[in-house]
Amino acid sequence: MEIIAITFIQILVAMLTAITRAVSAKRMIEAESSLCNTCIHAHLASGLGRRKLTRCTYAWLSREINFAVSDCTMYRDRVMATRLVRVTGFAAREPVSAEAAAQNQ
Predict the structure, then answer these.
(1) In whole angstroms, what is the distance from residue 77 CA to residue 44 CA?
(2) DSSP character at residue 70
(3) The dihedral sign for the CA sequence 17, 22, 23, 24
């Protein structure tokens, strides 16, 4: 009877260990797939032992992000090529009447 109890406890411990490892692996996958990893506004730092520091620098403010982000209104993909804008000249200025010019001075 003792052998059955010991075997049952060993199986129970093995199942709990497997569940714990699966949950921690899922959390690591979620952390690695954070939207911040590909955002142009993110400052990412990785340390020893899989420690990561993520800061959002949108609008020149540095805010620490402590969770995996799945959706963000400030997201901008750093891989996408930025669109260049060419300025070919200035818009034509509308003629100003002498009365309007005198009122502005």
Answers:
(1) 14
(2) S
(3) positive
The predicted model scores a pTM of 0.46
Same domain, 52 and 103: yes
| pLDDT over 90 at 56, yes or no | yes
Identify whether residues 46 and 19 lie together within a single domain.
Answer: no
The two three-digit tokens of residue 97, written as one number: 């009447």
Q: Please indicate, yes or no, whether residues 4 and 55 belong to a single structural domain of this protein.
A: no
Cβ atoms of residues 69 and 35 within 8 Å: yes
Mapping DSSP to helix (H, G, I), strand (E, B) and coil, where does residue 18 land?
helix
